[in-house]
Amino acid sequence: MSLLELEGVGKKFGGLTALSDFNLSLAPGELVGLIGPNGAGKTTVFNLITGVYKPTEGRIVFNGKDITGLRPDLITRCGIARTFQNIRLFGSLSVLENVLVANHLRLRSNPLEAVIRWGRYGAEGREMVAYSQSLLEAVGLAHLAQEQASSLPYGQQRRLEIVRALATKPKLLLLDEPAAGMNPAEARELMDFIRQIRKDFDLTILLIEHHMRVVMGICERILVLDYGLTIAEGSPAEIQKNQKVVTAYLGVETGA
Amino acid sequence: MGRIALQPPGFYSTVAKAYRKQPNRWGLLLTGGVILSLVLFIYWAGGHFNPYQVRILNLIGINIGLGLSLNLINGFTGQFSLGHAGFMAVGAYTTTLLMMPPAIKQMNFFMMPLVSPLDQIQLPFLAALLLGGLLSALMGVLIGAPVLRLRGDYLAIATLGFSEIIRIVITNIRSVTNGALGLKGIPAYTNLWWSWGFALLTIFVMTRLIHSSYGRAFKAIREDEIAAEAMGIGLSRHKMLAFTLAAFLAGIGGGFQASLLTTIEPNMFRFTLTFEILLMVVLGGMGSITGTVIAATIVTILKEVLRGVEAPMNLGFISLPGIPGMRMVIFSLLLILVVLFYREGIMGQRELSWERLLGQKDSSPERGVEI
Known about the structure:
The complex is a heterodimer of chains A (256) and B (371).
Chain A: E1 4-13, E2 16-26, E3 31-35, H1 42-49, E4 57-62, E5 65-66, H2 72-78, E6 80-82, H3 95-101, H4 111-115, H5 121-138, H6 154-166, E7 172-176, H7 184-201, E8 204-208, H8 212-218, E9 221-226, E10 229-234, H9 236-241, H10 243-250
Parallel strand pairs in A: 3-8, 3-9, 6-7, 7-8
Antiparallel strand pairs in A: 1-2, 1-4, 4-5, 9-10
Helix pairs in contact in A: 3-6, 7-8
Chain B: H1 11-19, H2 25-48, H3 51-76, H4 84-99, H5 102-108, H6 116-120, H7 125-147, H8 152-172, H9 174-177, E1 183-184, H10 192-210, H11 213-223, H12 225-230, H13 235-261, E2 263-264, H14 271-284, H15 289-305, H16 307-310, E3 313-314, E4 319-320, H17 326-341, H18 354-357
Antiparallel strand pairs in B: 1-2, 3-4
Helix pairs in contact in B: 3-10, 3-13, 3-14, 3-15, 4-7, 4-8, 4-13, 7-13, 11-13, 14-15, 14-17
């Protein structure tokens, strides 16, 4: 059974078709890449899966549940977490607080219990801090726990965003250009990191990336989008040889 | 990079202990000391201050509560609301109508009699206050549900509009509110114990709420709504929570004010009232509890000190007639200056803490977070 199933999903903004008849099936544990030139509709796919946009056609099924048109916070509760292309951390909050915020969806205490620190809130709060702290330790950000998130260097902000997504305890992680702006060494480190978290957290990962070395290096399957259409799908080796993909990225030689 | 693996039992509680903010014994002691001296001061002031000074002290207490409630929406949750005067009006009128003795009601409503059950009801002050707060909170729910979908300027305009609607409705349902004639002879129950009790309780609730998981959710919404939603935070639920609690506190503050001034009329609850409270929030720092406390004190005192500028003045060579509203001009200029040159306000998003006051480092990693 597949974990995520997109059936004929499309999205129109007025007259502009951002995505049409998009089909995707993710098996549990898969690491799939989504590539394509700028404006091809990759981030639109993410926004549709996470509920930021509502699809104009088609159906999205996650874990056997139809999540088409559901509110973003409810979709996150179902077990889908994401990062953003342009980092969206809670800038004035500390690194630890950023991760703590992602624990809030599991909080069962009501506001009154939280104010008077009564009943289950104490235990829930401690568990929350401990889990966040262990996550930060595991990815090597623990020493920065009290720093303001916006003061971190770029690479660590990317990493923090991934950790924050992990703290929602997702089954499916959507990474939107995690290697953007990274040098080859950093990108290699990131690839190891992504492989590591997939194994340790039992994740299925869908990844948008322009960094071809990263995509070809870690993805088992790749989808290529161009102008809202899926133009190719297959293993990294197949994609590299696909004539349509080469054309989409490099254009056609028209001859002299 | 370390491997992320399942931790042995007991690991989490050990880590939690290390990173939890240890309650500072000295801090607790000092806070207790401040509260005790405040209590002693109020006890002493009741006997030694003249009524005018007592009234200013009362206003400071009430304004601290009002300022904090507005800061909860505008500063901590980042939803720019301008509807506070409306909520205060609901609280003030409800409290007054519920606690005023029937005889005084009869004297007030000489144009049009008060509607049936209300003209006989007389509740104790506290019950009337709480019901005023609850009705105001209900208004908060009714108004918040449609307008909290809006963002930024649009939300400000919509809340301002609703606050005006409330005022117009109050002016026109004369059989309930006595219309533009207002209500006079309200029992003067508000004293320093009530007003400062309100201030301290509001400070306590706000501090605990802001440092809880809910407070972090509010701040996350302020920082980035899309990211907050992607982290599983229900936007409308949390915005409504902040908005309703703020409306509740504003309603209670309005009730206290009615009982302090002993007279209310619809025109008291114009936009300028919201503006005064907004000034406290902006001057103190959007998103700082201690900042609002400091600014509420400063603005309330300044408002009295500046009474002089509205009186007729004789500068020797020229004599000016009194200009009513001159204080508002000065406050508006102050707000413009703060926004232009000192946008952070007194405290920004920081808080005064004993560590900070005593010159201890308070950003060490050992400090951790409160849970």
